Amino acid sequence: MDAATMMKTATILLALTAVGGLLMAVIRFSGAERPPSWIAMLHGLLAGSGLTLLLYAGFAAGMPSLAWLGLLLLAAAALGGIYLNLAFHNKQLPIPKNIIVVHALLAVAGFLLIAVSAFR
Questions:
Q1: Residue 114 and residue 33: Cα distance in Å, rounded?
Q2: Which parts of the chain span the membrane according to its record (predicted)?
């Protein structure tokens, strides 16, 4: 499989991840302390799958530098997501809205860079 196809597939996985992230943000900002665990787990699984595929595409077939920057931003967002999960969600604590916003901004910026690189 060539890098372009892998990047397009990763973009689709990350778009599905974004839908789950948006759903969780709506749940949190509408007053619930945290989203259901199954949504959070599916969100993380899809994000991890997309990131893994991007890493493989980058190292095995090569990616444009814009895609590498997007991958870096997505990795930072993933670290934020892991922090949200382990420090708050897993302990049944309310998830801080400010960290959600930073997580989302990093993820959206990374996703847009990947999408532009994949469908250029």
A1: 31
A2: 38-59, 66-88, 100-119
Exposure of 8 by Cβ count < 10 A (0-12 exposed, 13-18 middle, 19+ buried)? middle
DSSP state of 35: -
pLDDT tens string 56-99? 999 999 999 999 999 999 999 999 999 999 999 999 999 999 99
C-alpha closest to that of 100 among 116, 84, 76: 84
| Cα 69 to Cα 34, 65, 72, 79, 81, distances in angstroms | 30, 6, 5, 16, 18
Please give the structure tokens belonging to residue 107: 């993820």
* 49's tokens: 């799958």
